[in-house]
Amino acid sequence: MFAAEPVSGHPLLRPAARLAACSARFTPTMLAGNPVKVTGIITYNFVAP
């Protein structure tokens, strides 16, 4: 199961940050050859072109 929820930032950018986090793909974290559940924070910095 995967969940993402913005914890800070401009309210107009929070949906984009959530979408980016939910679209990200990661390699499973392994411990002794078994996948383990991990929790973390992803920081997205939005900049104007």
Give a written overview of the molecule.
- This protein has 49 residues and is an alpha+beta fold.
- The protein has one domain (1-49).
- The protein contains 1 helix and 2 strands; from the N terminus they run H-E-E.
- It has one helix at residues 14-23; strands at 30-31, 34-35.
- A two-stranded antiparallel ribbon has the order 1-2.
- 2% of the residues are buried.
- The model has no long low-confidence stretch (mean pLDDT 89).
Overview features:
49 residues; two-stranded antiparallel sheet; 1 helix
> Can you summarize the main beta sheet?
2 strands, antiparallel
How many strands appear in the DSSP assignment?
Answer: 2
Can you give the helix content as a percent range?
Answer: 10-25%
Q: How many domains would you count in the coordinates?
A: 1
Query: What string, H for helix and E for strand, traces the elements in order?
Result: HEE
How are strands sequenced across the largest beta sheet? 1-2
End-to-end separation in angstroms reads: 34 Å
Q: What is the radius of gyration?
A: 14 Å
Tally of contiguous helical segments: 1
Q: So what's the oligomer here?
A: single chain
User: What are the low-pLDDT stretches, counting only 5+ consecutive residues below 50?
Assistant: none
